[in-house]
Design brief:
- The complex is a heterodimer of chains A (320) and B (498).
- With 320 residues, chain A is an all-alpha fold.
- A two-stranded antiparallel ribbon of chain A has the order 1-4. In chain A, strands 2-3 form a two-stranded antiparallel ribbon.
- In chain A, strand 2 and strand 3 form a beta hairpin.
- Chain A starts with a helix and ends with a helix.
- Chain B has 498 residues and is α/β, with parallel strands linked by helices.
- Chain B folds into two domains: 231 residues, P-loop containing nucleotide triphosphate hydrolases (Rossmann fold); 237 residues, 3-Layer(aba) Sandwich (Rossmann fold).
- Chain B is built from 17 helices and 22 strands.
- Chain B has a six-stranded mixed sheet with strand order 6-7-8-3-9-10, with helices on both faces. In chain B, strands 16-19-20-13-21-22 form a six-stranded mixed sheet, sandwiched between helices.
- In chain B, a hairpin with a 2-residue loop joins strand 9 and strand 10.
- In chain B, helix 5 packs parallel to helix 6.
- The longest helix of chain B has 16 residues.
- Chain B starts with 5 loop residues before the first strand and ends in a 7-residue tail after the last helix.
- The chains are: A mainly alpha (320), B alpha/beta (498).
- At the A-B interface, helix 8, helix 9 and helix 13 of A face helix 1, helix 10, helix 11 and strand 18 of B.
């Protein structure tokens, strides 16, 4: 397993180096600090959610509702703000919505035993519906300056609050996944839930915690989006779940659970960001950008499959 | 002299630089049951795959009726009349017996139900099984499913039937039934190649037996010319002394576990026994006797609905595996793949599956140093053969996987060890090692509850033997008073409890 992941990491590293070098050579403005900051800024909410989605997928689950939760959180903030609720209180309520939404997902998946694909698909529709009911199609804007600044203004040098949050969460997520008992259990449960259950691991609680964390972080990311754009609408973060899942799969996590690392997920983030940034600076149109990202998704699902196929044939040949 | 139906002539098979078979020669004659014994990894599977056309030999060749043939693919092998059945029968659960038998028969667009049923019934009669051909396969026992597979092979005019550990998952009664079918086929002129880890079965059934080791042919003997001890010595290349003999009991006076009238409604009832420190209690019975369910109830997976359990003198009502583990009970499952090990995760991680909480430092962080020291320690103590503890446990042989499972539970220092089928599907060398480990655990004051369908194992390990039949406790027999016939008779309801 280790070797396979290492080779996947090597592949990702090579891909990243190629894209980075191509951008650096062909685009004089690429390596400037404003461009690098901008590159991260434009996708910062997605890549924050990628960090928790990695846990979900390694745990052999899926959460399709993250984009809708981002939208719901942002819209709830806008609506509460409009109703005259203190923005700080509104932020707290939005995060609470994230926790509750994640808990609903987690309870249905872990206790009722429904497939997460179905549960979170329902949540995708439900959360989005709520968001649209709250805000409809008109935008809500004119948030307090300090709120907008969270997503727009450099806090440490040119790094915004959102970016600092991402890097902090990256370190925290890495420690939890790679170093802690919780992370170990994430792999074990994802690899074989019955084995985990028989080893006395509380798999229900574990799954609940992961879904709650995903809801919470998605709600947080939704607020960051509202702050960065300075406005919310019912369709905020629509379809983001696809980009988020794509990055996690590109990072080598198996959709069947039990494998994946945050290092390669980090590499996958860098690849997607650099690719988008390079294409944008080369004036590649949005449609083609989407096409290229789609190709990446196919590659990220297909290449491990080829590897899997090779392993299966090897197994049937070499096994006694 | 008759020609062998199938023969291997100096067959070698290389995988890269590794030789799986070296100069293997073997002759299968019509009408014989030819047993193959060898440790896991000896090359049995490779040999079968060459005979069934899945692999091609690197050198040497296969002969059918004295003529050299090249078997490319399993279809070619079937055309030559070579078929194989395995431990896990391949039947289609939603189809009935007749449909399963004729699954690959192409007979035009419409299936003649009547003719199919009649022919299926004839085949069943032919192999001597009473089986309604209209029954749906999912409702059949494993042995019946295997009979369906054999009938399927017969429908394709099988001349060489390879049976790869067909009885490994069967109860003693079902295994006997299957052996009867094998014998009957041989009597009708089929060459039967029979692979088994159960030596007593080999001696009961086979005409000749070949031992293979490390991909090489070691010996072929008439069954009358060899003994179990000799065969084991040839298989492992060394003497294994105590596999069949019972060691002195280490039972103490201190009752650790006391079970009274334990029941899970609708599953089993009336289970009562005391288990002392240092004692090994073996649960014997046929498949379906519900022994595993008793183990699962004690381990809290399916909590008991009635009865009383006292552990260390205090009442114990485990509602989950966590409860049982906290109390000091470990449960080694019979199903390594589904319930025992996370196959794609490293050996190291599997060893600490149940005990990770004892390898922590700081806020929930894993102390990988201490974890690794424990793993290396157990790797040495249990003689686990693996290049390192970081490779996926699924890559180890069955015997070594079993030892990893034991390490996983022994490192929690349990007081009661429940082991379900401790040596299923592992080779005889590893079997002896596992038995030694179990005895050692008991000798150090642990109590062991073993669930085993392997009667020699039950007799070799159990200080006392609890026999179950259809969810009821038939008797507890002291080791001195136990022999295979007595246990079998109780398990089959032929003898009343003493």
């Amino acid at each position: 397993m280790k070797k396979r992941l290492l080779s996947w990491e090597g592949l990702l590293l090579a891909a990243f180096a190629t894209i980075f070098a191509f951008n650096a050579i062909s685009l004089p403005q690429f390596l400037t600090i404003p461009n690098q900051i901008n590159m991260f800024q434009l996708s910062i909410e997605k890549v924050i959610v990628v960090l928790v989605m990695a846990f979900v997928i390694i745990n052999a689950e899926i959460d399709l509702s993250v984009g809708s939760m981002m939208g719901l959180s942002a819209c709830a903030f806008g609506w509460l703000f409009q109703q005259g609720v203190d923005p700080v209180v509104a932020i707290g309520l939005c995060l609470l919505i994230g926790v509750l939404g994640g808990a609903v997902n987690g309870l249905f998946v872990a206790w009722v035993g429904l497939p997460s694909l179905v549960v979170t698909l329902a949540a995708l529709i439900g959360f989005r519906g709520l968001a649209r009911v709250l805000v409809e199609d008109r935008g809500i804007t004119d948030f307090p300056d300090w709120f907008d600044a969270l997503g727009q203004q450099g806090l440490i040098g040119p790094m915004t609050f959102a970016m600092i949050s991402f890097f902090t969460l990256l370190v925290v997520a890495w420690i939890i996944l790679e170093k802690s008992a919780f992370g170990r259990h994430t792999y074990v449960i994802g690899s074989n839930r019955d084995v985990a259950e028989f080893a006395g691991i509380n798999t229900k609680r574990h799954k609940l915690i992961i879904f709650v964390a995903t809801g919470l972080v998605s709600a947080f990311a939704g607020l960051l989006y509202a702050a960065r754009v300075g406005a919310v609408r019912g369709d905020v973060a629509n379809g983001f779940e696809l980009d988020i899942i794509t990055i996690v799969l590109l990072g080598g996590a198996s959709i069947f659970g039990g494998s994946g690392t945050l290092v390669s997920t980090g590499l996958a983030i860098l690849i997607v960001l650099n690719l988008r940034n390079g294409m944008a600076l080369h004036n590649v149109t949005g449609h083609i950008q989407t096409g290229v990202i789609g190709f990446l998704l196919i590659a990220s699902v297909l290449v491990p499959r080829l590897d899997l196929l090779r392993r299966i044939t090897k197994k049937s040949k070499g096994q006694e | 002299m008759t020609k062998p139906t199938l023969a291997l002539r100096s067959v070698s098979k290389m995988f890269g630089m590794t030789a799986a078979l070296t100069g293997m020669s073997l002759e299968l004659f019509p009408g014989e049951v030819h047993a193959i014994v060898g440790e896991n990894g000896a090359g049995k599977s490779t040999m079968i795959k060459i005979m069934t056309g899945i692999y091609q030999p690197t050198s040497g060749h296969v002969e059918i009726d004295g003529a050299e043939v090249s078997l490319h693919g399993s279809k070619a092998a079937r055309l030559h009349g070579v078929a194989a059945i395995y431990q896990e029968p391949m039947v289609f659960p939603d189809l009935d017996v007749a449909e399963n038998i004729f699954i690959s028969a192409s007979r035009g667009l419409w299936l003649d139900r009547k003719a199919t049923r009649r022919q299926a019934a004839e085949l069943m009669a032919h192999i001597g099984m009473k089986l309604d051909v209209d029954r749906v396969a999912s409702g059949l026992t494993l042995a019946e499913q295997q009979a369906v597979e054999i009938a399927r092979a017969l429908s394709q005019n099988v001349r060489v039937l390879i049976m790869d550990e067909p009885t490994a998952s069967l109860s003693a009664h079902e295994a006997a039934e299957l052996r009867r079918v094998a014998r009957r086929l041989a009597d009708q002129g089929v060459a039967v190649l029979y692979i088994s880890h159960r030596l007593e079965e080999v001696f009961e059934l086979a005409d000749r037996v070949s031992v293979i080791r490390d991909g090489e042919h070691i010996s072929t003997n008439l069954i009358a010319d060899t003994t179990p001890q000799q065969m084991i010595a040839e298989m492992v290349g060394r003497e294994v002394g105590n596999y069949f003999t019972k060691m002195a009991s280490t039972t103490t006076d201190e009752v650790l576990l006391s079970v009274r009238d334990l029941a899970v409604k609708g599953v089993f009832e009336g289970i009562s026994f005391d288990l002392r420190r240092g004692e090994i209690l073996a649960m014997a019975g046929l498949i379906g006797a519900r022994r595993t369910d008793v183990g699962l109830a004690l381990f809290g997976i399916t909590p008991a609905t009635e009865g009383e359990v006292r552990f260390k003198g205090r009442p114990l009502k485990p509602r989950s595996a966590q409860d049982a583990i906290r109390a000091g009970i470990a449960y080694v499952s019979e199903d390594r793949r589904k319930l025992g090990l996370a196959m794609e995760l490293p050996v190291l991680w599997n060893m600490t599956l149940a005990t990770l909480a004892t390898f922590l430092r700081g806020p929930g962080l894993v102390d990988t140093g201490a974890e690794r020291r424990m793993a290396e320690d157990f790797r040495k103590r249990l003689n686990i053969r693996t290049p390192d503890v970081d490779i996926a446990v699924g890559k180890l042989s069955g015997g070594n996987q079993q030892k990893v499972m034991l390490a996983k539970w022994l490192n929690m220092n349990p007081e009661l060890l429940i082991i379900d089928e401790p040596t299923r599907g592992i080779d005889i060398g590893a079997k002896a090692e596992v038995h030694d480990l179990i005895r050692g655990f008991a000798a150090r004051g642990g109590a062991v509850l073993i669930i085993s369908s392997d009667l020699p194992e039950v007799l070799a390990l159990g200080d006392r033997i609890l026999v179950m039949r259809e969810g009821r406790q038939m008797a507890i027999v002291n080791h001195d008073a136990a022999d295979q016939q007595r246990i079998m008779a109780l398990a089959m309801g032929q003898e009343k409890a003493a």
